[in-house]
Automatic annotation (TrEMBL):
CDD domains: Arginase. It catalyses: L-arginine + H2O = urea + L-ornithine. The lineage of its organism: Bacteria, Pseudomonadati, Pseudomonadota, Alphaproteobacteria, Hyphomicrobiales. This is Arginase. It comes from Methylobacterium indicum. Its cofactor is Mn(2+). The keyword Hydrolase applies.
């Protein structure tokens, strides 16, 4: 099935809160709906289905020797449930996962990897985030499991028995990480020699994002791959997106973020999308939820110049 035939979008609520120690991410799916995401997609002529909200499955994870870790079994249960949901809904539609903290990507990407395997195609991942999220269960010092999904998804050691078994691990060479500006020493070591493409904010400042993104998208197209995009609120500068518990100064600007979304739409390659780490409790009158909604609309075809301007 060609991507161009997958016009239908399915919204999947993923109110995951277990991966962070800051309350509020579980309100994210409702905030996206209230900010008008379903109607924004319909306005683009896309059929939209709201599949409701996923609930975690029971998962019997033993206590981990790293005592900093919290909500391990619950996060593993979310991973299992979201992997199943991602595989199921991606058969004939493009899923948009409304989060929830970034630990949810352990499930959504795992499910999309299974979908890619079923179609005999490789999965590629564009990771738009201030953080690498490459800690293992052994290296995390915060115990917040929103910092481990990429380590889990790429098959790094230490997850067996604590997280669901991976049927299709992700090749790091098929990951492009954009916007990094807060990376711990253990994560730096994991990135060294991994093969992942890394474009931190200095790289973007010096050379821009268009050429490296087009290079990555060219490889996705050449491999006839599936592309999953994981967009974290903290990819954006907190000056324009304050509704997140992991603010890091110096993030992407309004135009940089929209340019990335427009390039992704032009490529015609995006099969699935995560919108993660929105914390409405920390937002300013829905400002961040509306911006993330606008970015999603740009990814699915809306142009800035299509919108009327207004004077202040």
């Amino acid at each position: 099935m060609g991507l161009r035939n997958l016009d239908r979008c399915v919204l999947v609520g993923a109110p995951v809160q277990s991966g962070t120690d800051r309350l509020g991410c579980d309100m994210g799916p409702s905030a996206y709906r209230a900010a008008g995401l379903p109607q924004a997609l319909r306005d683009l002529g896309l059929p939209v289905e709201d599949a409701g909200t996923v609930v975690p499955k029971p998962f019997d994870a033993p206590a981990h020797p790293n005592r900093a870790i919290h909500h391990l079994a619950e996060t593993a249960g979310w991973t299992l449930a979201l992997a199943e949901a991602a595989f199921r809904v991606s058969d004939a539609a493009r899923p948009i996962f409304l989060g929830g903290d970034h630990s949810l990507s352990a499930g959504t990407v795992a499910g999309m990897a299974l979908r890619a395997k079923a179609e005999g195609r490789p999965l590629f991942l564009l990771w738009l985030d201030a953080h690498a999220d490459l800690h293992t269960l052994d290296t995390t010092t915060s115990g917040n499991l929103h910092g481990v999904p990429l380590a889990y998804l790429t098959g790094r050691p230490g997850f067996a028995g604590y997280f669901p078994a991976l049927d299709a691990a992700l090749d790091p060479a098929r990951i492009c990480m954009v916007g990094l500006r807060s990376v711990d020493l253990a994560e730096r070591a994991a990135l060294t020699g991994s093969g992942a493409r890394v474009h931190d904010m200095r790289d973007i400042d010096e050379t821009g994002i268009v050429a490296p993104l087009r290079d990555f998208l060219g490889d996705v197209a050449a491999a006839e791959g599936l592309l999953h995009v994981s967009l974290d609120v903290d990819f954006l500068d907190p000056g324009i997106a304050p509704g997140v518990g992991t603010t890091v100064p110096g993030g992407a600007t309004f135009r940089e973020a929209h340019l990335i979304m427009e390039l992704l739409h032009d490529s015609g390659l995006v099969r699935s999308l995560d919108l993660v780490e929105l914390n409405p409790f920390l937002d300013e009158r829905g400002r961040t939820a509306r911006l993330m909604t606008d970015l999603a609309a740009s990814l699915f075809g809306r142009r800035i110049l299509d919108r009327p301007t207004r004077s202040f």
